[in-house]
Design brief:
CATH topology of the largest domain: Rossmann fold
Strand order of the largest sheet: 3-2-1-4-5-6-11
Structural class: alpha/beta
CATH class of the largest domain: Alpha Beta
Order of helices and strands: EHEEHEHEHEEHEEEHEEHEHHHH
Number of domains: 2
Number of strands: 13
Shape: globular
Radius of gyration: 20 Å
Helix content: 40-55%
Largest sheet: 7 strands, parallel
């Protein structure tokens, strides 16, 4: 790497983006940190903050001035977002950023996609697995992938497909795992111990950021797609029980999560009427948790339609292709790493303490 090469990091306020900014600075990059707003972003020591809404026409052209490399982590993931909003951010804005970076003479782009694009099957699932998006979010990410790869001759692109991400400040799927115990505890003095269910891996946000920087300047990674995963496969039931343990919540017995009933219940909840009731109930229940424990209303647990398929579909992600390049994740023990993440949430007053 040339000294002080410039790196644009989009989604710099996000779970992965924050790690990319700090790790890139440590590696000597001059970082341009970008998100829709500047509030909450620390100014990089050798770089600058460049707030930008990529949905606005022409913004990308200004954003990429003087940029050598781009790591694009920004995405729309809100459960309330319409299909139009998802495609506007995840597809159209991504491709506009790519075109602007190519025109400006950038040397490489890394794009963050998702392993939830894969057809559900017994894993581990390599990059060659058939892609079958679960809904509009997945469709928007797949459209971005195809657009980038079809145009990658002018600006080499590497795509990362991480397993479901967890880490500090996360507000989506993994963060919802942290809400289950406190919500159940509202009415249960002892929670049911759970086991079984679909087998899946996850990825720590720091490792996703490390993977993005790892492939950024590798010629052999150009034009390729790589999975990112901790390789530590757990069933959903065991994952929830481990979360209860980390909270120090008492459990009783061991209840196996049967696959067929979970599939039936999940599909029932995906119907418009039941979905709205369940989603509202989750928000109201979490509101009770925040008031009872006097914590911040930072999390808003939602019944994300696409994430709900993981209640009954396995997603064991095979990251051996990235390992063959020499990459090794730091967080390979999910239970240990997730407990550290929980402690951060507790220290920030985002979730309760029970000890």
């Amino acid at each position: 790497m040339k000294p002080r090469s410039t790196l644009l990091v989009t989604g710099a306020l996000g779970t992965v983006g924050r790690y990319v900014v700090s790790l890139a600075e440590a590696q000597g990059y001059r970082v341009f940190a970008s998100d829709r707003i500047a509030r909450g972003m620390s100014v990089p020591v050798r770089g600058e903050v460049r707030p930008a809404d990529l949905r606005v026409p022409g913004v990308a052209d200004e954003l990429v001035k003087g940029v050598d490399f781009v790591i694009h982590t920004a995405a729309q993931m809100d459960a309330d977002a319409t299909a139009q909003e998802l495609f506007q951010v995840n597809t159209d804005a991504t491709l506009a950023l790519y075109r602007a970076a190519a025109k400006a003479g950038a040397r490489r782009m890394v794009h963050l996609s998702t392993a939830t694009l894969y057809r559900s099957a017994a894993g581990p699932l390599p990059e060659s697995t058939e892609l079958v998006p679960r809904g509009p979010y997945g469709q928007s990410k797949l459209a971005a992938e195809r657009g980038l790869l079809s145009a990658s001759e002018s600006l080499p692109v590497t795509i990362l497909r991480p397993a479901p991400i967890y880490g500090r400040r996360g507000r989506h799927f993994a963060a919802s795992l942290l809400a289950v115990g406190p919500i159940l505890r509202l009415t249960m003095p002892r929670l049911p111990g759970l086991s079984g269910g679909p087998l899946a891996t996850m990825a720590h946000a720091e490792d996703v950021a490390r993977a993005a920087l790892f492939v950024l300047e590798r010629d052999e990674a150009a034009g390729r797609t790589f999975n990112v995963s901790d390789g530590d496969a757990w069933t959903l039931g065991d994952r929830l029980t481990e979360t209860f343990r980390a909270y120090d919540l008492p459990t009783l017995g061991r209840l196996t999560m049967p696959a067929k009933p979970m599939r039936w219940i999940s599909r029932l909840l995906l119907a418009p009427g039941p979905y709205q009731v369940a989603d509202r109930a989750a928000l109201l229940s979490w509101g009770l948790v925040t008031r009872r424990h006097a914590i911040k209303a930072a999390l808003r647990p939602r019944m994300d339609r696409e994430a709900m398929t993981l209640l009954y579909e396995p997603l064991e992600v095979d990251a051996s292709a990235l390992a063959a390049q020499g990459f090794r994740p730091r967080h390979t023990d999910w239970a240990k790493a997730f407990e550290y993440v929980l402690r951060w949430y507790q220290a920030e007053g985002w979730v309760p303490r029970y000890a």
